[in-house]
Amino acid sequence: MSAPLPLRNIAIIAHVDHGKTTLVDQLFRQSGTFRDNQRIEERAMDSNDLEKERGITILAKPTSIEWEGLRINIVDTPGHADFGAEVERILSMVDGVVLLVDSSEGAMPQTKFVTGKALGLGLKPIVVVNKIDRPDGRADEVLNEVFDLFVSLDANDEQLDFPVLYASGRNGYASDDINAREGSLEPLFQLIRDHVPAPDLDTEAPFSFLATLLDRDNFMGRVLTGRVQSGVLKINDPIRALDRDGKVIETGRASKLMTFRGLERVPVEEARAGDIIALAGLEKATVANTIADPQVTEPIQAQPIDPPTLAMRFAVNDSPLAGREGDKVTSRLIRDRLMREAETNVAIRVTESADKDSFEVAGRGELQLGVVIETMRREGFELGISRPRVLFKEDENGGRTEPYETVVIDVDDEHSGTVVEKMQRRKAELTDMRPSGQGKTRITFSAPSRGLIGYHGEFLSDTRGTGIMNRLFEKYGPYKGQIEGRLNGVLISNGAGEANAYALNNLEDRGVLFVAPQEKLYEGMIIGENAKPDDLEVNPMKAKQLTNIRSSGKDDAIRLTPPTVKTLEQAIAYIDDDEMVEVTPQSIRLRKVYLDPNERKRMSRKKDAA
Description:
The protein contains 15 helices and 35 strands. The protein is of the alpha+beta class. Strands 18, 19, 20, 21, 22, 28, 30, 32, 33, 34 and 35 form an eleven-stranded mixed sheet that branches. An eight-stranded antiparallel sheet has the order 12-11-17-8-9-16-13-14. The chain has a seven-stranded mixed sheet with strand order 2-3-1-4-5-6-7, sandwiched between helices. The radius of gyration is 27 Å and the shape is globular. The N and C termini lie far apart (69 Å).
């Protein structure tokens, strides 16, 4: 066994918006990874537009910093459980984890998800209580919550004896003193060096490597990222890929080897056990495959991926306005794009329908599939998206089971009664309710995923926009029976043309409008929400009749309430089973699946008869 390398591999775990990416920015700056005069963006690890806009980490990304002769490889993990398929495999690349918790919000469901995976792999955590300078901080209580969380996740004694630092990632300091309000991140660097073990791997054994991330490069083809488990690999060495059963998938050569330096991938001549590298040269190998020397026959054990729980239908856009805004509208282009997505995102499953015009895409949650749709629309695709549906299973007795989620809700005390009532209507079970200080209550439910589809918009209205809801896949449990859906019907346009202010003014009494004057409409398009439970066909193009008789009073200027404009996620959550979201690069429209009213009635009768 050769001497361990001056190397540490760590993953940073945090809930959405707890300051993980900002802390990594400061680690870059204080380690000297960037020159003093080098201009870098804030939140440098958020590499794509969606991550920057939403402030969440979607893609796991390795990076590397050097500090006092020690190389620290850092893996930035997604903060949302919908992207959890990344997390499970990434943790196999590291020897320690830094758990970042907000000094006010404490340990949240997504923290629990990733931390549970890390503790299960035997990794020893370092806990950093971040945003210690928050006026509503409660660091001591949060630390107790983290300890209780570790106990509930069956942490061993060594893991429970974790070191703690109090930090402000934005201001760039960390300390073991809870009252510190200045300093540097030196204590964190020292703790990573002293607490996280060096990779204890054999460099004399034949080369082996587990692919944990996959992306495509126009010049290099498939690029597999992971940690070298044993041996040494040099450029052009022969390699082969093995699946989980040890079957050879393909053989080839290591045409390109890269390691991570700061935010860049840098070509290297060789990689040794413990290094996190990106490797090109194979065409079929994918995530969870073992890439190894030809003499290796035993694959490295890979973490199984949690199954998808939700599916949506992606269809060719067949509305009367199709093809006006996007340039990628055919089923072949949509199919190729979805297959490419499924290739690099292993948590997604794509199934082609019999009519070849639509595809069922299954994933871990609404947010994950929403990100796929948003990315496609920015690339110029036009799509018709159906209401999400959960994927049912059968238990050993043949009974129907459905996915459940743990839902943690933080609300002002005055709204807690409404939230509990609405959640119970959706077949959720209340498991915990406690005051969380500052006039807020934290309520925990175990709820069927089916009941949560479409609830988020209603929840924000009920809590006046102040409530925070976090969800996490819990288990497959018994089927809960019928759950009530949306209570209100919709207003449907009965013709095609442009919306008229006069007509919309008269329709305002009927409900809430989704469209503005001069907006292009077509028959069967949803233009608003009806105040009553039934759907209502209306004429939003109707203009005022003009005559040559002067009226005695001047017409009042029409003043319309601004329309409710739905984001992509809100639109997907809002629609019912007989409705679709039309997604184009410039517009998000709601419509009925069957645009013709006679066909809608016929299909409705057929459904009632069934």
